[in-house]
Amino acid sequence: MILTPSSLLAAAVLTSTMFIGAFIISVIGGVFVAAGRRSRLAVVRVSATLWVNVVRGVPPLVWLFIIFFGISISGNRLTAMAAGIVAFGIIGTAYLGETFRAGIESLPAGQFDAVKGLGLPSWAAMRLIILPQALPIIIAGTASYAINLLKETALASLIGVQEITYLSNLTVNRGGNGLIAFTVAGAIYLLLSLILGMGGRFLGAKIERKFSVRTA
Amino acid sequence: MINNFQELLPGYALSLALTTVTLGLGLPLGLLAGLSLARGPKVLRTIVAGVVEVGRGVPALVTLYLIYFGLPSVGIVLEAFAAVVAGFAFTTAALTADIFRTAITAIPQGQYEAAEALALGRWATFRRIVAPQALRIVVPPVVGFSVIVFQGTALAFSLGLQELMGLAYSLGTQQFNVVPLLLAAGVLYLATTLIVSAMARFIERRTTTTVPSVKQSGRVTPPVPA
After folding, report:
1. ipTM of this predicted complex?
2. Which residue of chain A comes nearest to B76, CA vs CA?
3. Helix, strand, coil percentages, rounded to 5, for chain B
4. Closest-CA distance of chain B to residue A155, Å
5. Are A136 and A1 in contact (CB under 8 A)?
6. Residues A110-154: pLDDT tens digits?
7. How far is CA B69 from the centre of its chain?
8. Interchain contact, A147 vs B70, CB within 8 Å
9. I need a labelling partner for B160 at 20 to 30 A (CA). Which of A45, B25, B87, B117 fits?
10. Partners of residue B168 in chain A, C-beta under 8 Å
11. pLDDT digit string (tens) for A33-52?
């Protein structure tokens, strides 16, 4: 039996590392994508839109393989783990970019008009007026994407990253019970995604409290 | 490059077939789950909510493996195609249950009361009053979701099916030409995704009833992808 507490822990650490690395890339890149989509310059706007559509138009598994094999052909060495972080990070910039943009654009048009009417510089407007209202929506969307990303990391088992799904697969290959192995894997993902969901709700509630307008 | 596309066509056809069968099985299941969540008795609601939570929290790949490698240990042996369809249909049902649930709960209570006043039975109320209105809400997100299912069929590669991704990979390794073939497969996925997404937007424009608040702000927020 290969499924031991220590091997599961090691695999869960790999899953989490891949998730955290890709998530950081996604958030930072997503800010740029959202800003690009709302840019005044048509060139920037069109390139950002193209990026979003092309990245989201191809299955994550295909991106993962293109990046993993593409970089190794060019003569550079990229470990499977690094390829996973890069691929899922790149994919995340498109999805989170749209989540950020949708959060900002969910505000009534009057808010943007009012900000203009007040003559607020765009950064101040964003920081003081728009983001406090958009953040709860953005956080909810980001949390649900984070759960997606966590599940996506399972694909990296197919290029040999020894994370949770890989470990369960290995167990089956060596004659272990598949039902147990994959139920354990599923339970770990479920647990991790519940934690992510709870974290998202906690953060959302905190932000909402911080910026809530006191009436009466 | 054109040669590559031609070689990939059988895989593309299998991907489309997988998508069709998955949706054909998964959407009715999703509707049943959505109905139970919206109108079912409490026990059923709790059970369905739990199953939906599992379907959403567990990676589709793990579900596939569980069915293909796990079920044989209790005597259920499925071949790859059947295992893939079963796994995807389950995931589809779990991910669309909420779409159906919100559509059903979006029908105002007054509609049910009016139907009752007209002495319509439960089934007639659903078929003649609820379903036509819910359908309008459900179609755009479901068309959008079919894109996700289509892209998701790439996972069938992991069980050795020669769908678009699987065929591209196996041809690529035979010809020592993996990346160009994967890129060609990517182009086919991209083209299909863009066409179906454009269709979803078109249908959404045609079916959206104008809500006053939308008119006021002059802005329609696009649905956030799942």
Report:
1. 0.90
2. A179
3. 85, 0, 15
4. 7
5. no
6. 999 999 899 888 888 888 989 989 999 999 999 999 999 999 999
7. 24
8. no
9. B25
10. 62
11. 999 999 999 999 999 999 99
